[in-house]
Write a structure and sequence with these properties.
By secondary structure, this protein is mainly alpha-helical. It has helices at 2-9, 22-36, 71-84, 86-105, 107-122, 124-140, 152-161, 166-182, 188-198, 206-233, 262-285, 289-306, 311-344, 348-357, 364-381, 385-402, 407-420, 429-438, 442-470, and strands at residues 14-15, 18-19, 47-50, 53-56. The strands form 2 sheets. A two-stranded antiparallel ribbon has the order 1-2. A two-stranded antiparallel sheet has the order 3-4. α4 (86-105) packs parallel to α12 (289-306) and α8 (166-182) runs antiparallel to α17.
Length: 475
């Protein structure tokens, strides 16, 4: 994890020999949005309370006084963004600290060494498939993305040990999680919130979404495996062959030939149980981010005590791990500041009003595709899935009613547009963290991902066409 800290602190992404600092990128977007607030024609929708949530009243758009973002507001956006993303940031920090506790027990290195040796018998491609299935579950069923940040460096090191490059390590973990998050059928942050706003039964229409999840999981796996096989056969074909990845590699020479102790096995079991309890609480108890933080912290403390780490050693591990995860957590908060600037400058409603107005004269299928594309661009400015749902769904739901498109179909178009583009926009803090951890330059990432997204777009359109044809519902 100390490696992750150093990599992120340096920006970790290079473009034509110059460091592309993710914080600078996000702050530049904040400044751009602030300047934009002086030129966008002001307007707003009326809001009303629905079950404790403020939603937009259809056909209520009206002119309002301009509220440009001042120089002071530009800098106020940072602490306000940090405050808005506090729960997610604390979860990332706590998991980072807990992972460092497990790391110091030696259990993680032993597990990686065992997986590496298993690959000699079952094949490294099989190992990659297993890893991707785990992260597909975390993203596609639990709706996780930022929460997996502390685990990405571990997977990158493992993939390097298996003979792949750092891009493969990032793809099988972070990217896989992002793609499955995009179409997660039970994603409380996107689907759940949208269903609540649209007054649909919670997580209804899951059959089609599960099909989409399976399709995108398979599509992502095949694409990653194709690149991974090519790189392992000929390292010169790696897109990141010129990037120094020595700091990302783990040295297993000291533990080779040693047996995994019973306490290390127990530590890994507790690690797995922490996941199980967190999943159970999310699905059955309605737990949130703070509950997950508490469960992982509890598991980490138990492991530290069982491994006879004294209070100073446990505290030092938690602080060191949290310090390593801090740049990643900070990016999440700075990314949230973009949304604060757009809201403060009164730009969200004019943008949504303009975009939705363009869709009222086309066929239902092309309308849904248009909404899909529009939400891809909205996601560049509102990189929060729940924030985007609260912004666009109150407008899109009545629009769907007027255009005789089912609300379920409109929500599917929003979900695709918001989620699938998460791996495209450099305003997405989570993507920047993943790329920073793997030391993958943004231009190299686009070279890798653009062909995939061409196919991904066509697949999404096919699902939207099917939704229009079957009257995807219940309504």
């Amino acid at each position: 994890m100390a490696v992750a800290s150093r990599v992120l602190a340096e920006g970790a992404m290079k473009k034509e020999g110059k460091i592309l600092n993710p914080f600078l990128v996000l702050f530049s977007v904040i400044v751009f949005c602030a300047v934009l607030s002086y030129f966008v024609t002001p307007g707003a929708y009326d809001r009303t309370d629905l079950n404790g949530r403020m939603i937009v009243v259809a056909d209520s758009y009206h002119s309002v006084e301009r509220t440009p973002v001042s120089l002071l507001d530009v800098f106020l956006s940072i602490p306000n963004g940090l405050q808005g993303a506090a729960g997610m940031m604390f979860l990332v920090l706590i998991i980072g600290g807990v992972v460092e506790v497990y790391n110091r027990t030696g259990s993680i290195d032993q597990a990686m060494l065992r997986i590496s040796s298993i690959s000699d018998r079952v094949g490294s491609q099989t190992v990659l498939v297993c890893i991707m299935l785990v992260f597909a579950f975390l993203g596609g069923i639990l709706g996780w993305s930022e929460q997996v940040i502390p685990f990405v460096p571990i997977i990158i090191s493992l993939c390097l040990a298996l003979g792949y490059d750092a891009l493969v390590g990032m793809a099988v973990s972070g990217f896989m999680c992002l793609m499955c998050f995009a179409v997660a059928p039970f994603n409380i942050y996107t689907v759940g919130l949208s269903h609540q706003i649209a007054q649909l039964p919670m997580f209804s229409g899951s059959a089609l979404r599960l099909t989409a999840l399976g399709t995108y999981t398979l599509l992502s796996m095949l694409y990653i495996l194709y690149y991974a096989r090519k790189v392992k056969a000929n390292p010169e074909l790696s897109l990141v062959k010129d990037i120094d990845d020595s700091s990302l590699r783990r040295d297993f020479s000291e533990i080779k030939g040693t047996a995994m102790t019973g306490m290390q096995v127990l530590s890994l079991v507790i690690f797995g149980m922490s996941f199980f309890v967190a999943v159970y609480g999310l699905l059955q108890k309605g737990w949130g981010l703070h509950h997950m933080s508490a469960i992982f912290l509890m598991g980490g403390l138990i492991v530290g005590i069982l491994n006879r780490m004294d209070n100073h050693a446990i505290t030092d591990a938690l602080i060191t791990g949290a310090r390593a995860a801090f740049p990643g957590a900070l990016i999440i908060g700075v990314a949230r500041a973009i949304q604060w600037v757009l809201t403060t400058g009164g730009m969200v409603d004019p943008i949504i009003h303009w975009l939705s107005g363009m869709l009222q004269t086309v066929s239902p299928f092309f309308t849904t595709v248009g909404i899909y594309i529009i939400n891809m661009f909205v996601n560049a400015f509102i990189p929060s899935g729940s924030g985007q749902a609260m912004t666009v769904m109150p407008v899109l739901v009545p629009l769907a009613d007027m255009l005789h498109i089912t609300r379920q179909t409109i929500i599917l178009a929003y979900q695709f547009g918001d989620g699938i583009s998460n791996s495209l926009w450099f305003t997405n803090g989570t993507l920047l963290i993943y790329l920073g951890l793997a030391r993958v330059p943004l231009r190299k990432w686009y070279k890798f991902i653009i062909p995939f997204h061409v196919v991904s777009f066509l697949v999404a359109c096919a699902f939207l066409y099917a939704a229009c044809e079957i009257g995807y519902g219940p309504f």
